[in-house]
Write a structure and sequence with these properties.
The complex is a heterodimer of chains A (114) and B (111).
Chain A lengths: L3 E4 L2 E4 L5 E7 L5 E8 L3 E10 L2 E4 L6 E7 L2 E6 L8 E9 L6 E4 L3 E5 L1
Parallel strand pairs in A: 2-11
Antiparallel strand pairs in A: 1-3, 3-8, 4-5, 4-9, 5-6, 7-8, 9-10, 9-11
Chain B lengths: L3 E2 L5 E4 L4 E7 L6 E7 L6 E7 L2 E5 L2 E6 L4 E6 L8 E8 L7 E2 L3 E6 L1
Parallel strand pairs in B: 2-11
Antiparallel strand pairs in B: 1-3, 3-8, 4-5, 4-9, 6-7, 7-8, 9-10, 9-11
Classes of the chains: A mainly beta (114), B mainly beta (111).
Chain lengths: 114, 111
């Protein structure tokens, strides 16, 4: 998985609790992304980062926040988890050479919110 | 209407068959087209990417883009059981633009 790890790989939590997912890369890629994958929706971008402390929202960012204090780590926080946030979360990284925005994905975190 | 449409399948074929996977899109600004393969409970992995129109071949895989029809295809020759996976198309307009993904087509190659 191109030097990308995600932790935890599985998590069950209760509605209303905060949850933090971690993505760690060893590729020194500039861009990092958080997606969620749900049946019928495919992969949807939550947030992305284009450098340390530089982040921006994706198409489904409500209820999520991110932080990137080091090149290699990108954290996704669910501020108060809801059942609609039950999903599989993927981290991805990209660099611009050899092509545009070709992304490499981590193994995913399966999150269940009860 | 979604920007990228992809038949979810499942598509079942016998081993050795030629497989055709397709996506249509509506955004004429898309210039870069990618295919990802995703095994069950794994992250997507990049198979191929192409720029603009034309064909690109890599082993048993051929990616084809027809920008005039807003239609892209992935062909798999001599399909193997190990090709059983979900195939996602993806595209963007380049530069710092976000990537838009199809919902994926599930392929099963039967021995």
């Amino acid at each position: 998985d191109a030097g990308i790890t995600q932790s935890p790989r599985h998590k069950v939590t209760e509605t209303g609790t905060p949850v933090t997912l971690r993505c760690h890369q060893t590729e020194n890629h500039r861009y990092m992304y958080w997606y969620r994958q749900d049946p019928g929706h495919g992969l949807r971008l939550i947030h992305y980062s284009y450098g340390v402390k530089d982040t921006d929202k994706g198409e489904v960012s409500d209820g999520y926040s991110v932080s990137r204090s080091k090149t290699e780590d990108f954290l996704l926080t669910l501020e108060s988890a809801t059942s609609s946030q039950t999903s599989v979360y993927f981290c991805a990284i990209s660099e611009f050479f050899p092509g545009p925005d070709t992304q490499y994905f981590g193994p995913g975190t399966r999150l269940t919110v009860l | 209407q979604k920007e990228v449409e992809q038949d979810p399948g499942p598509l079942s074929v016998p081993e050795g068959a030629i497989v055709s996977l397709n996506c249509t899109y509506s955004n004429s600004a898309f210039q870069y087209f990618m295919w990802y393969r995703q095994y069950s409970r794994k992250g997507p992995e990049l198979l191929m990417y192409t720029y603009s129109s034309g064909n690109k071949e890599d082993g048993r895989f051929t990616a084809q883009v027809d920008k005039s029809s807003k239609y892209i295809s992935l062909f798999i020759r001599d399909s193997q059981p190990s090709d059983s996976a979900t195939y996602l198309c993806a595209m963007n307009s380049g530069g710092y633009q976000k990537v838009t993904f199809g919902t994926g087509t599930k392929l099963q190659v039967i021995p």
